[in-house]
Amino acid sequence: MKSKVTYEGTEKGRRGLSDSGGAPEPRIRVPDAVRALIRKLEDEGFETWAVGGAVRDALQGIRAGAGDWDLATRATPGQVRRLFGRRTVRLGEEYGTIGVFGSDEVLYEVTTFRHDVITYGRKARVAFAQTLDEDLARRDFTVNAMAWHPRHRELRDLHGGREDLQDRVLRAVGSPRERFREDYLRVLRGLRFAGALDMRIDPATWDGLVEAVPGLSRLSMERVREELQKVLAGPHPSRSLVLYQRSGALARILPELREGVSPEALATVDVLDRGDWLLRMAALLLFGMKPGDATPGRVAGLLTRLRFSNADAERIGAAARGGLAPAAGIAADPFARRRWVADIARSGPSGVEDMLRIWRAVARAAPTCTDTDKVDRVAAGIRGDRAAGIPTSVGDLPVAGRDLVAQGWLPGPGIGAALRSLLEAVWEDPALNDRATLLQKVAAMKPARPPR
Q1: Residue 430 CB-density burial (10 A; 0-12 exposed, 13-18 middle, 19+ buried)
Q2: Which residues, including other chains, have CB under 8 Å from residue 336's CB and lie 6 or more apart?
Q3: Angle CA(255)–CA(259)–CA(260) in degrees, nearest 5?
Q4: pTM of the prediction?
Q5: What is the pLDDT of residues 151-180, one digit of tens each?
Q6: How many helices (H) and strands (E) does the chain have?
Q7: By the 8 A CB rule, do 83 and 40 touch?
Q8: Are 229 and 194 in contact (CB under 8 A)?
Q9: Which of 2, 4, 7, 3 is nearest to 131 (CA)?
């Protein structure tokens, strides 16, 4: 026999009003697939609500993506798996979370009501709870501690999240000191939320956050990198980065940035394409590391410590090699420019374009560091060289090592040196980039052995 679903909200909650102040009934549009999941769980007697960021965003008129909708339910993980069968994925069953594919084939997180039992500052040991209110009480910030029931159009908001959202205030649920001590990642989440949502941080919450900053050293580097990635991928990372610096979190997680984040750095990071957080990271390193510190080795060491993938680390390192502005001579000397392009191209196919994008952003945001005309001259020269087919490596030359062997050269390093000499000759005079002309130059060189 199925149990009856009951609700324990206040009278305001049953009328669809916020418990924090009698605001008018919210208009929250929930995807049909989410409503179907809730309906199926509740038809089996398991109270279920939409929770988290999607509810918060919906109250601001922001349409959340389908996969952003999370559900909290009285059903245990085992009951969820039995109910949805093959449409489930064990995402974090030990913490009460099961992934369920909806009718739209999107994977939704369905998590059993929980409350913390023991906290370690990194990840809490949790136990399943019986009520939604227990679950909401363990959440980090009031704006994230709201739940919406689409079938009854009820907003459960016992901690004033909706009012804080309207007032643009980020406030911890309950005791800020306890919330941050439960999980130090909440320090970085708070800084990210305040920046992304353009909110001021409640004074007591700020004090608790700053007090907890030393605890960041207990977090795994993967969790730190993921938070930093989310900040840099946002529309205005500067807002959060300012708070990172002011709170002491930046010095704790990125001590290599001894220069901190200057106004020029913040402006440049915002100007760069938000879809490319790796390039923003490169710019952050270039501004924040002391002159001479942003060497490939030191950049690689920093990125390895933060558990960046090899591919991401290589790209950031290559982009950082170009500095904040074109090196002296590159804009005016074609030979120097071609040698520079060849050197950077060895680091990866996107290296040159990445550097140009950083330089353009710096020219827009911090014109005292470089100027647009210089960057444009370099970019125009590179485009012209590409259009003319000027080689960037010996492999691009119209002659190869076998041509030198045919003229009596011994296989070995001498051939490589000769080809490099031909490449530099072409950089000096592009008119030489012709097979017959280069073979004549080879014939004029002294071979490693006389031809037979």
Answers
A1: middle
A2: 327, 329, 330
A3: 70
A4: 0.86
A5: 999 999 999 999 999 999 999 999 999 999
A6: 22, 11
A7: yes
A8: no
A9: 7
